[in-house]
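The following record pairs a protein chain with its ligand, iron/sulfur cluster.
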Amino acid sequence: MPAKTFYLETFGCQMNAHDSEKVVGTLMAKGYAQVPTPEEAGLVLYNTCSIRDKAEQKVFHRLQQFKRNGKDKAIGVLGCVAQQEGEHIFERAPHVGLVCGSASYNRLGELLVQIEAGGRRVTGLSLDTDEAFDTPFTRRDNPHRAYITISEGCDKSCAYCVVPFTRGPERSRTSDSVMAEARRLAEQGYSEIQLLGQNVNSYRDPTPAAWNFAILIEHVAQIPGIRRVRYTTSHPRDFGRDIVEAMDANPVLCDHIHLPVQSGSSKMLASMDRLYTRDEYMRRIEWIKTARRHYSITTDIIVGFPGEMEEDFEATLALLDEVEYDSLFSFQYSPRPNTAALRFEDQVPEEEKRRRLTIVQEKQRAIQIRRNAGLIGSVKEVLVEGRNQALAQWIGRTSDNRTLNFTHPDNGGASLVGQYLPVRVTRSGPNSLVGESVTVV
Ligand code: SAM
Ligand code: SF4
C-alpha cells in the first residue's frame, strides 16, 4: 500500500456526513493524509447508505471500479451497507478489505492497525455498544456550523425502514458530554450547532439529571457564542408541546421544524407502524402553527407503500394542502432487507409509484412557489455560507432554513462567510430566495 493516504466518499444523511467527519479526524490523528481522488489513495473508504435500494447500488457500482485496478489499495466499506450486508460484502466484492458499521467506529483505530499489517477481511460489525460514537478526533467540514450527535440508533420499527438494523438500538449521550462538546465548539468559534439523532427528540439523558429533549435544547441555546441551534430528525410521536415552548422562549433555537409524516392516511400510518394517526400528527402541526413565533415546517413523504390505494394517496395530497410545508423530501417506497413490509401483499407497481411521486413533487413545487413569493419584501437574517462568483452573490441561510442568496456592496472583496447579516428578499423561486443586504433589520 502506498504512503498513508486515504480517500473518503460519503453517501446519505447528515448522520453519515458527521460520522465521516469523525472518521477523517481519527485517520488524520493516525498520520493519514486525505487526498481528493481514489486514484491517489492507499486507502479508499466509502461511508454508505442503505435507506433505499438505489443508495446501496451506488456503492457496489463504485466498488466495481476497483475490481481490476485496485490491487495496490486497501478498500473499506463503512456505515449502513457495511452493517446490513456484513461479511457478504467480501463475497460480492472480494477486493474489499474492511467492513465496518457505524456502531464500531470507536474501534476504527484498531481495525486500521490490522489493515496496515496486511490484514484481509477485517470487520467491525457489532451493534452491542452502549456508547454513542464519541471521539476527540473530529475533522469538521464547516468552520461555522458544527454537528453534535446526541443519540444513535432507533427503537422504533417502521415497517419500511432498515435503520434499526443498521444503526442498532437507540442510545442517548449524557447531557454533560453534549454540553461539554457544545461549549468547546462555541469557544472554538462555531456559532451554529446542529443536534443529530435518528429520532433526535426521543433523547433521554442517561444521567440522574434525566433531561428530555426540550430541556437539552434550552440549555444548549443558552451557551454564550451560540447564535443558532438546529436539530434533525424529529419523530412525531415523541414531539411534545414542551419542544415548541422551549423554541418560543429562545430565538437561538431556529425557526424550523422537520417533522416527517410519511403519509396523510391513518390507514397507511398504521400499516407503516408509525405510532401516530393523521389527527395526532395534525395536532402537532397546530401547536407549531399557533406558536408565538413563525416556524417553517418541512417533512418526508413515502409514496407507493404496499397497500396504498388511490384514496390513501389522495389523503397525502390533501395533507400537503392543509399543512403547506415549506419544503419536503419525497421518496418512492423501496423494499429493504429484514423489514416487515417486505412480506406485505399489495405491492404498488414501480410505474404507479413514479406517477405518484411526480404528482407529490409538482404539488409541492406550486406550494413552495406561492409561499416563497409571500416572503418578498421581508428582511431576514442570514448566516453567510459562501460565495457564488458566477452570479456575484453571497450564499446565505436563514433561521427558517431557506437559502437566501444576496448582493452586498462589499462585492466579493472581504469574505463575509461566517457573518450574520440582514437581507431584504427581492425575488423568489421554488427552492430559494434572492435579496440584497440592508444595514438594519
Ligand atoms: N427517523 C426519521 C423518522 O422517523 O421520520 C427518519 C429517518 S430516515 C433515515 C429518512 C427518511 O427516509 C424517512 O423519513 C423516510 O421518508 C425515508 N425512507 C426510509 N426508509 C425508506 C424506504 N424503505 N423507502 C423509501 N423511503 C424510505
Ligand atoms: Fe426508520 Fe422509523 Fe426509526 Fe425513523 S423512526 S429511523 S423511519 S424505523
